[in-house]
Amino acid sequence: MLDLDAAALTAAYRDRRLSPVEVAGAVLDRATALQPALNAFAAFDHDGALAAARQSEARWRAGQPLGPLDGVPLSVKDLMTAAGMPTRLGSRAVGPDDLPRIDAPAVARCRQAGAVIFGKTTTSEFGNLIVTQSQLHGITRNPWNPDRTSGGSSGGAGVAAAMGLGPIAIATDGGGSIRIPAAWNGVVGFKPSYKRVPTAATEGFGRLSHVGPIARRVADIGLAMTVMTRSDGSDWQAAPADGTDYMPPGEPDLTGLRIAYSRDLGIAPVPDDIAAPVAAAARTLAGLGAEVSDVGAVPALAGYVDSRLHSIQWMVNLAHRVQAYDDERRALIGPEVMELAAIGAELPLAAHVAALDARERLGRAMHAFLTDYDVLVCPTFHADPPPVPGLPVELREAPRLTSWCNQTLQPAISLPCGFSAAGMPVGLQIVARRYADARVLRVAASFEAARGPFPAAPLPAGVR
Asked: What are the chain's domains?
């Protein structure tokens, strides 16, 4: 039952072949069994989840479900608040009662739709790394190879989706934190347009962080988006709810769609074993009727890596966050965060303003580039997940192929398209202009249908 998507689960509830209580119990049992090996969860709410599942079961028996998420198990990244569980932001500096135990906007929308919120997934401290490890929660490992990282900073969410621990995990993305774990765990991760999903004050760093879902299938991404984008008055910057149904169409037909394909965007050293599955995916899209153009280097991104505009903003924001803690709390923060925060605190104001100006130019240039194309496709990341613990020096920069999408506020998805020579999943990234979220999901769903089912990550011995 744990390999079923949300639609299949609710169909089984409707027919009484399964019950929400049965499914919630199975998810909690597997999550608990996997915790020693993979370490994907920061907290569980066993009692709250089972109580919500019983309420859902009663609604299904009465023929009065709240909607297509009713009774569907769902997890929440530990950078977001959720009722019934502490939010620690992956940091020893944050006490279990420092942040309110209330639902963040996306969580609230899902709970109102009947979702069973059962756990908080692990993150790196303050979402700072592209690996998920912290002094508070330790290392989250990759189910395809536990000696490698799950990615970050939403590594716990990526593992949860890969292991069938709920069809959907809510996560955040400040530079690739949804898409990179999705790629490395062989699942689907969607960073919506900025503020397409309302957020709360605790969720990330200003205009860099986006909230979105991770799942095993694109249909569940669309279902989650339809629910999470519902109106919420608490976020003054949120895009107005427009009633869009993000469920992609069933038939894989991309006739007339203009797709720009790039092996590396001209900014990353992508090896052949990662480039090849992405190139094959581009050919698959062409076979679905799309007009696919190999654009090589993308002119709008020339100079992006050398500008360090993402890193500058990130370090300044980290410095601001760290300064909010007293000396006693700062002593509990990990050295990686403190090192970057110290650099951010010393950066001159002119450097930060220059980075913001460069961001404006990049946004305009990418907006213009995508007037000629409906979507851009490329690899999600230019390397396999590295071994744990630690992070190689060459990967400590802002992720080259993903972070620019946060700068330009555009929607971007990663979904698996094959395997590298090391046997690790490879992600295909699809990007569109801001607010063309439904188009991204349409292309992703069409590719997914043409590709066929992607293999599931193996369960450790003895876990069912």
From this structure: 6-451 (3.90.1300.10)
